[in-house]
Design goal:
Elements (H helix, E strand, L loop, with lengths): L2 H7 L7 E5 L4 H12 L3 E6 L2 H9 L5 E5 L5 H11 L2 E6 L15 H22 L3 E10 L12 H20 L4 E7 L12 H14 L8 H13 L7 E4 L7
Helix pairs in contact: 2-8, 4-5, 5-6
The site of NADP nicotinamide-adenine-dinucleotide phosphate has 28 residues, from helix 2 and helix 5.
């Protein structure tokens, strides 16, 4: 696509098929909503059939849903064979955060943290990228822990750094498909549901107050970054930080 065509197309995803792995909730669901609002058809996949069904029902007939456990490589391969060609791949799947100081970190558990966030992302790109159409893109998900780790975030920060290196390597290997990643700060989603409601609100409030923008992120704030990366045609291998200024303070 020429730069002029990119400008003309800005704001348009009509006729585009967008695959959202982890699209049933939080950031992924917000990306699905925004992509659909711009004319795309969303293909949502995640492991909980009921959540997938509810997400699809909220997208006004512009989405299809698939139950897919991303910890199973064969299922990922079958999923991409089944859905056929598409335009943009968005990977936002993630499970509840396990944070621990190094001395209390069990290595077996630490290794499992990489299963969904790294190995499943790698498998999704391996089996999904051959089906991506011309001018398509891939957006992975990392987090600012790689740049601004806190005590107890050793494993989480390592996964984020790994995803960022993966993003750059894939951008080189899969060109001309563009491969980028979005790096959110703290966002109000189900990811924090292993805390009780009171602790969670306290976290959102105290983190929010400490940030230049005065609040934590909402899924819609972050979703705009993924949509931007689908629409513009010139960034690849980049990590787009959307964190309310967290890395600055
Ligand atoms: N929220 C934050 O503060 C924050 C900050 C930085 C980075 N992130 C990253 O952003 C991404 C999205 O998180 P979120 O905040 O939007 O959380 P979320 O609302 O909990 O969404 C996570 C999604 O992952 C899916 N998922 C979980 N396990 C899966 C599996 N085995 N197979 C397939 N799908 C699976 C979930 O659906 P099912 O349960 O149906 O499988 C859900 O759709 C994650 O990678 C997270 O680490 C979030």
């Amino acid at each position: 696509m020429t730069p002029k065509q990119q400008i003309e197309n800005h704001g348009e995803l009509s006729e585009k098929r967008v695959v959202l792995l982890g699209g049933s909730s939080g950031i992924g669901f917000a990306v699905a909503q925004q992509a659909v609002a711009r004319g795309a058809r969303a293909i949502i996949a995640s492991s909980n059939a009921e959540r997938v069904k509810q997400a699809v029902a909220m997208l006004d007939g512009k989405a299809e849903g698939h139950t897919l456990d991303l910890s199973n490589e064969r299922d990922i391969q079958n999923f991409f064979q089944k859905i056929g060609h598409f335009d943009h791949l968005v990977f936002t799947a993630g499970d509840a955060l396990q944070l621990n100081v190094l001395a209390a970190t069990e290595l077996a558990q630490a290794r499992r943290v990489f299963e969904l966030r790294y190995w499943a992302a790698l498998a999704a790109v391996k089996y999904g990228s051959p089906h991506i159409r011309k001018d398509g893109s891939i957006a992975l998900t990392t987090g600012i822990a790689s740049r601004r780790p806190q005590k107890g975030w050793t494993v989480a920060a390592s996964v984020c750094g790994t995803i960022e290196a993966l993003t750059r390597a894939l951008a080189v290997e899969l060109a001309p498909i563009r491969v980028n990643a979005v790096s959110p700060g703290v966002v109000r989603t189900n990811l924090w549901q292993n805390m009780n409601a009171e602790e969670r609100e306290h976290l959102f409030e105290s983190v929010g107050k400490s940030l230049p923008v005065g609040r934590v992120g909402e899924p819609d704030d972050i979703a705009q970054a993924y949509v931007f990366l689908m629409l513009e045609g010139f960034s690849t291998g980049q990590i787009l930080v959307v964190d309310g200024g967290t890395v600055l303070v």
